[in-house]
């Protein structure tokens, strides 16, 4: 199976084909330095001890801070990513130099347990100029956080007791400043600006990508671990020792199930990234027509734009079994707290990342939203199925699930929570 790798250096980018006969090479260089550093404290004091692991209750009292790493003036927005969704926390943040901390803000409501990533994004092209990973845990571990330090090493990814084994924090900090898995589109640009980072849900045929920044040259190898079968089902790695930024990707080519992507440096486990492969959902026009907005909807979607990109779309509920598509109940309009609400359908043309909003009819306001991760349309396919599932946490009332492509409103699904 052919893999591809990109080594990104400060002044150059090498595109490398990792086939059996392909060569490779890199020029030693330091990794690009982030223009913005972000951190979180549990008070309004930026000099308080920073935290990267906190409870849901603590997130409601947390303060987010940023500081430039150079004397350059930088303007950016901050997005918060959770699984395949994101929300923009704040725009128009300004930093000027490394001597003054800037308040980014806080959370209006507590975050649920999980892995989150903050990204500072600048410019029309959406360049990521800084990031911060945090873990929201149901309870804190006995160990206390380290004392604050401007040169504190990053926390190794995905440290959680639910993993099959734990990565070695010291080795990660020795070799990496960033490490993660994401999704690469079918058509890869040079450089690969369309890489979706921190993705944990894939469909068959998606391109899974290992990316990161190596600060001390090392040899990297990887293994894909089947959680249910409790065994390694695939092994790989980069053909030679590297230093600097890198990204290597290949088709997912795995059956539906739950997995872990394990990364090793110098034969030591340095990262474990849980992910899931879901089925490609297929529907027929008779079972799922193109959505028609209700006359009582707060606004009407753009049917022409919808028809360019989607064959069909609907709102449903994933039943207790959790198997897709057999446990997906389609065209649901009434839910209860804790139900698995699902947006599903078929895409016929690639588009910029869609997003969703949940609109509270009685209060006349949007209460939540984020990005939607859709699969890439494959050559030879007239439609590719998608599904996005989350646990419903809304109070009793009437709601609308709205879908957008950029600023264009393309679909609305009225529903009720009882």
Which strands sit side by side, in order, in the main sheet? 2-1-17-14-11-12
Q: Low-confidence parts, pLDDT < 50 over ≥5 residues?
A: 1-33, 142-153, 282-295
Strand content: over 45%
Mean pLDDT: 76
Radius of gyration: 22 Å
* Total of DSSP H or I helical runs spanning 4+ residues: 3
Cα distance spanning the termini: 50 Å
Helix content: under 10%
Query: CATH class of the largest domain, anyone?
Result: Mainly Beta
What global shape is seen? Answer: globular
Number of strands: 28
Overall structural class, as computed from helix and strand content, comes to mainly beta
CATH topological fold name of the largest domain: Immunoglobulin-like
The profile of the biggest β sheet is: 6 strands, antiparallel
Q: How many domains make up the 3D coordinates? A: 2
CATH architecture assignment name of the largest domain: Sandwich
Oligomeric nature of the chains: single chain
